[in-house]
Each structure stands twice: as C-alpha cells, then as structure tokens.
Amino acid sequence: MSEDSQRNFRSVYYEKVGFRGVEEKKSLEILLKDDRLDIEKLCTFSQRFPLPSMYRALVWKVLLGMKPRSW
C-alpha cells in the first residue's frame, strides 16, 4: 500500500466513526484567510461539516451579515 492510499483509508475510517479530519479545519482556515470572504463557500462548508468551536461564532456572524465580508 502506498502512503496515499493508507491516508485515504484512515480518513474514511475516521469519518465513519465520527472524527473530523484535519483537512476540514485547514480548508476553513484557507477560506477565512481571503481578504474578501466567499459567502457561498462558507455556507456550503458550514452545511457539510461541523464548524470548529474556535471559528463557529465568526463564521455565523459573517453568514448572518453581522460582520463585513471583507477584512
């Protein structure tokens, strides 16, 4: 087995038992680093994955229009 297939196996296994992947957190951090936030991408992300507690309030404030989209 190659390194990639082992990682994919682990990712699938962890997802099945209910653990969030590190990739999801990194993806959210990448979305939040942009100068102008993409509301559609944030909305899609928040629907598909649980938001980490450290970013939850910020993301919801942006999605609800309480925080500006650009930093």
From TrEMBL:
GO terms for molecular function: GTPase activator activity. GO terms for biological process: negative regulation of TOR signaling. It comes from Spermophilus dauricus. This is TBC1 domain family member 7.
